[in-house]
Specification:
Layout lengths: L4 H7 L3 E7 L4 E6 L2 H6 L14 E5 H5 L10 E5 L5 H9 L4 E5 L2 H12 L8 H15 L8 E5 L8 H5 L4 E6 L2 H9 L2 H9 L1 H12 L11 H22 L4 E6 H6 L1 H11 L6 H8 L17 H14 L1 H17 L1 H12 L2
Parallel strand pairs: 4-6, 4-7, 5-6, 7-8
Antiparallel strand pairs: 1-2, 2-3
């Protein structure tokens, strides 16, 4: 990469805004091909290799580049561990879609949006301006007729509200509380993640509920897992209620697995994409459906998922039962929690 990077940035999506230094107002650009975008499960540091061309530039230098008119990206928001990468991979097979999976720069902006660190010190107007700029940068494509579809990290859900405020289009992916608990408790890594995220999730949920949710007794394993569902479902419901002009569709991942071809076609239609019944059937019959979407080198089918969830349901039956009762108690105390539970039930 060289001093001609501004021309390359304006031309297409090759130069990807990978990471930002929000304190220093700098952005790390990486050179990505269209095939690399379609292959990548995560657009974060895990892509860094000695062969990846990178260059640090000033935020203001990117902001000064005149870009052609661009379509607002489509979005996939989700509560985590509910097949968002799979849906992104299936729709990403369409020539009209450029999939961006979990851009790290959006997670950085989400962290700032939630925590408002003093060493950055953005005003509300500045925060909005920066988010608009990044969305524009991420909207660039490789050819006419193509549109970006951003599959956000679940940690980016707080940005759903500002990103969809101006009539955006998004899919909200979820599953029932019980199935979510089974999913998290079925894996060592997901259990460890839930435990590590207990405090920040409690803090976010408390902001919505308006009072402390901390208890004298430590939370059980299933309770820590439930915080992920509660936190993200409440956030997505809040975004929907504050974005009346947005086109938002909800999809229960278990419902998708029961009727993958039909649900994929409906999802494509929601985004205004041309996907015939035969095309949908071919996609859901392809190896994409039998591989682990975040690491396609591993087998992971719907039947294997069902076996793992059934085993977790059996092993953690008592904890899951007590946690569901605990969540019901929270719903009686906090209307926003009750609304999230009702939304999940009504949209199945």
């Amino acid at each position: 990469m060289n001093n001609d990077w501004q021309f390359r940035f304006a031309a297409d999506a090759t130069l990807f805004p990978h990471l930002a230094d929000l304190q220093q107002n700098q952005v790390l650009l990486s050179a990505m091909s269209e095939a690399a975008f379609k292959q990548a499960s995560f657009l974060d540091q895990r892509l860094f290799t000695p062969d990846l061309q990178r260059q640090v530039v000033a935020w203001s230098d990117i902001a000064s580049i005149a870009l052609p008119p661009l379509n607002k990206p489509h979005y996939i928001f989700h509560i985590g561990h509910v097949g968002s990468t799979l849906i992104s991979r299936l729709l990403g097979e369409l020539d009209s879609i450029l999939p961006l999976r979990e851009p790290a720069i959006l997670r950085q902006l989400a962290d700032e949006y939630v925590n408002r660190p003093a060493d950055i010190g953005w005003s509300d107007d500045e925060r909005t301006r920066r988010l608009d700029q990044v969305e524009t940068w991420l909207s660039r494509v490789f050819h006419d007729g193509q549109r970006v579809m951003i599959k956000a990290s679940s940690f980016v859900s707080p940005l759903a509200r500002p990103l969809l405020a101006d009539a955006g289009t998004a899919l909200f992916l979820f599953t029932s509380m019980e199935r979510y608990l089974q999913t998290i408790l079925a894996g060592d890594a997901s259990r460890q993640e839930a435990a590590a995220l207990t405090d920040p999730r409690l803090n976010r949920l408390q902001q919505y509920c308006g009072e402390s949710l901390k208890t004298e007794e430590p939370l059980s394993l299933a309770q820590t897992a439930s915080l992920g569902w509660l936190c993200e479902m409440v956030t997505l419901c809040d975004a929907e209620s504050h974005c009346p002009e947005a086109k938002i569709g909800w999809l229960d991942f278990d419902d998708f697995l029961d009727q993958p071809g039909e649900r994929l076609q409906q999802t494509a239609e929601h985004f205004g994409l041309d996907l015939s019944t035969e095309q949908a059937r071919r996609l859901v019959s392809s190896p994409i459906m039998t591989r682990y979407s975040k690491a396609p080198e591993y087998d992971y089918s719907a039947s294997l998922r069902e076996e793992l969830l059934a085993e977790a349901a059996k092993i953690h039956a008592d904890d899951i039962k007590q946690t569901l009762l605990w969540v019901d108690q929270l719903a009686r105390r906090f209307p926003i929690v009750a609304a999230a539970l009702s939304a999940a039930e009504s949209r199945r």
